[in-house]
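Hi R.,

Here's the chain you asked about this morning:
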Amino acid sequence: MKKEKVKWGDRRDGKKVEAPGLQTVMTALFPKRTESEVYLHDVIDATELVKYLEKKNEGKTEEKMTIFHCMITGLARMLYERPIMNRFIQGYRIYERNEISLSFVAKRRFKDSSEEALMYLITKPTDTVNEISKEIIGDVKEMRKSEHATGGVDELLDKFAAMPRLVMAGSVKVIRWLDFWGMNPEFITEGDPNYSSILVSNLGSIKCPSVYHHLNNYGTNSIMVTIGTLHKEEMVMKDGHKEIRDVIDIGATLDERIGDGFYFARSLKLIKYIFAHPELLEKPFNEPSGFDYK
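And the predicted structure, written out as tokens:
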């Protein structure tokens, strides 16, 4: 995203924005993100997306594009077209991020004893599903070369975990205070999912349905999305007839202080529209989708 001149009140990761009085007052009345949650749940028709992926992956034996890659791309496009969704609350102020980022957790191995790794993706306005898919595949492949953290936020967390309890508790208090004032050093926040635009949990990869997932008071993340398993379900079509379709259930927990229900609902409609018209995934983010918000 385009960098703007830093003004008084801005943070390294976002610029301060003016908002209606109700939203501004709510940042003080409800200072914790966990007490300002609103949960949305819906079922998305993925029939056309499944057809799109079949054509996209035809002849491939590895590095196939997946529904998860398409969901990440769709969420990123939504943020580019719906900038209020890319806001966060910290220190009783409302900010808009300087970049659009998505993060997720990946297992190093599909075993109970295997460690999890934190993945962080910063998008570019010219990205399409092709670039997003390649980057996710490359990052996950690199991460799975090792059974343990080899750098980044995972290694930093391991160092914190090794501290004596009293030292760790004191360090966390200092970090939270710096977080409130937007002064946390970059080496602490860089690559941390708690500072991403959207934190995504792909529960479909472990054959689970989407669930409610809380937000965190630490960091700046305002949206948590869970994706369920692709399955068949009977749906009522526009003309009234019933049809068995490929669907995915999706859950989203949002910080209600960044926007209103009307804006949230329209943003979800955009995601559903993209899945119904998967060719839009091939368009760069800086090109409008053409979705009619009426």
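The domain at 29-145+195-282 is CATH 3.30.559.10 (Chloramphenicol Acetyltransferase).

Let me know if you need anything else.
M.
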